[in-house]
Amino acid sequence: MPLPAGGEIPWPPPELEPVAYKLTEWSAWYSGDSNALTSFYSMAGSASVPTAQRFFASDKSRGSASGPGSPARTFWGAPLEPGQQRTKLHAPLAADIAELSANLLFGDMPKFTSTDSATQKELDAFQTDGMHASLREAAETCAALGGIFLKVVWDKTLSDRPWLCTVSPELAVPSWSWDRLRDVAFWTVLYQDEDDTLRLLELHEVGSISYGLYKGTVTELGERMPLSAYEGTADLAELYGESGVMLTKLPWLTAAYVPNVKPNRVWQGVRCATNLGRSDFAGVESLMDEYDEWHTALQRELRIKKPRIHVPQAMMETDGPGQGAYFNLDREVYVGVMGLEAGIQVDQFSLAVNEHLTVLEALFEDIVSSAGYSVQSFGRKGEGSDQTAYEVQARKEQSLTTRGQKILYWRPALQHLFQALLGINREVFGTTSNPEAGIDVEFPAAVQPSMQELAQNLALLVPAKAMSRRLGVQTLHPAWTKEQVDEEVAAIQAEEQASLMAARPAPEPPALPQ
User: Fold this and answer.
1) Comparing C-alpha atoms, which of 189, 190, 211, 191 is closest to residue 201?
2) Taking a C-beta distance cutoff of 8 angstroms, is the pair 227, 213 a contact?
């Protein structure tokens, strides 16, 4: 699709309203901002909200029978009584789930390989801590919002190679060919006041990237402006002219969409959203709302049942007339007062903490399990420190199954993105890589065996000729390059040869003639 010509075009596109609404809800849970949660659920069902959005707001849990405009009661949407202080508390369980997902996927950097030596050298240069951090960041947002866009960017004044940048699905307008991303337009608000909104649209298509500057309002895209009309986009005009078209000369998109998991049960009836992924929070929003309610109830239980003391008037101290009275809690000795029978009385209330914790634990397990993870992945159920990797894997089986599902979507996306990275590296920076040769992506095991376990296994397999010495070194050091493995194998062979020579008996001296 070409960039819009401009005019009174609603923006964002109205067909994406249901998507934007759910993304706003998931984003509120992910952010952990109690104000965002209150604002969202107070708005749900409002007459000012489009019908499609009210539909999604009303269906907060699977099997909900509430109709559009009549959402189920929510803890965060309940209004405060007049004069009541806000005491609602939020437990950041949603953020913990997204963080766990990212750590399971990118706790260790995947390994990128190619059969072409020049391409492999370039791939090794891309596998840096910066790339690792970017992928982990993308995975966390992906888990929260149901998917993430990544695009190839570059700036010769900042780096000698391109890199990947994440884009929230809230700021993307994708176009699909069946279930494949055909092109995508990203948009950024450059400037906004009461009257005007300045947006930059960036359209990624096969073979090109196009930029367009638009001056409109909060709800309309407005007229298209020359790129040179705004200081922040003048450099694009210098590089690509007022048309703003950069030809990549590549047979691939320079952007990709990674769904979290599929299918998306939330948007089955929304045509423009059927290819979008499902958030880890989808279907458990009402449970997380209830979890916050019980978490708040526990804190209220502790607050209102704090021990109280009753002090006789005679034991109060004062700084003089009109200064009020107070009781010194740190004073240890008091002189008895004749005729005063009542002393200090302490009210100690019984706490129903265990009952609250039992409910919270049950809700926690329901939420985590519905999101696709094992409670053991969050450190629950008292895992011992002496477990083997195989025992840990058995206890975290549900989490590892979910990780395997997500890898099915991440691997092809990363193959595509790294081909685009190598292509831009060749076309813009003049390298000699050959991305057409293909790239393989290997994710490391989520649960790594300990060094002791590895040593025991290698001690059995290598002498038994069930594993070569080279494969043993690669198993022990999976992150090493081919050159490092070759050096280690050569060093081992040299040491073994030296040991054999040292163990060989010295030759006997020749016999003296009689």
Assistant:
1) 211
2) yes
Burial of 178 per CB tally in 10 Å (0-12, 13-18, 19+): exposed
Q: How many CB atoms lie within 10 A of CB 272?
A: 17
Helix or strand holding residue 246 (H, E): strand 245-247
Give 312-365 as a DSSP string: -GGG-EESSTTS-EE--TT-------TT-----EEE-PPP-HHHHHHHHHHHHH
Query: In angstroms, how far is CA 467 from the centroid of its own chain?
Result: 38
Helix 129-145, helix 397-429: angle, nearest 10: 130
Q: What is the mean pLDDT of residues 20-38?
A: 95
In the predicted model, what is the mean pLDDT of the chain? 84
* Per-residue confidence (pLDDT) for residue 57, from 0 to 100: 40
How many CA atoms lie within 13 Å of 322's alpha carbon, on the beta-carbon side?
0
CA distance readout (Å), 342 to 163, 338, 345, 346: 76, 11, 8, 12
At CA 51, angle to CA 47 and CA 53, rounded to 5? 100
What phi and psi, each to the nearest 5 degrees, are found at residue 108?
A: -125, 150
DSSP state of 502: H
- The token pair at 228 is 């040179």
Long-range contacts of 69-72 (CB under 8 A, 24+ apart): 69/45, 70/45, 71/41, 71/44, 71/45, 72/286
Strand 220-225 to 6-10 pairing: antiparallel
Q: What are phi and psi of 513, to 5 degrees?
A: -65, 145
CB neighbour burial string for 475-503, b if at least 16 within 10 angstroms, e if fewer:
eeeeeeeeeebeebbeeeeeeeeeeeeee
Strand partners, 256: 150
295, with CB counted inside 10 A (0-12, 13-18, 19+), is buried
DSSP label at residue 227: G
CA 367/CA 49 separation, integer angstroms: 28
- Count Cα atoms within 13 angstroms, Cβ side, for 493: 10
φ/ψ (deg, to 5) at 97: -65, -45
Measure the CA–CA gap between 329 and 340, rounded to whole angstroms: 20
CA of 274: how far to CAs of 19, 135, 179, 267, in Å? 10, 24, 8, 6
With a CB cutoff of 8 Å and minimum separation 6, the contacts of 254 are 151, 152, 204, 209, 248, 420, 424
End-to-end CA gap in the chain: 104
Q: Which of 29, 23, 24, 27 is nearest to 289 (CA)?
A: 29
CA–CA dist 237, 334 (Å, integer):
83
Residue with tokens 């449970």: 287
Q: In this structure, are strands 255-259 and 147-153 parallel, antiparallel, or unpaired?
A: antiparallel
Whole-structure pTM value: 0.80
Q: State the Cα–Cα distance between residues 503 and 495, nearest whole angstrom.
A: 12
What pLDDT, in 10s, does the model give residues 446-461? Answer: 765 556 666 777 788 7
Q: Looking at the DSSP assignment, which residues form a beta bridge with residue 339?
A: none
CA 304 vs. chain centroid, Å, equals 37
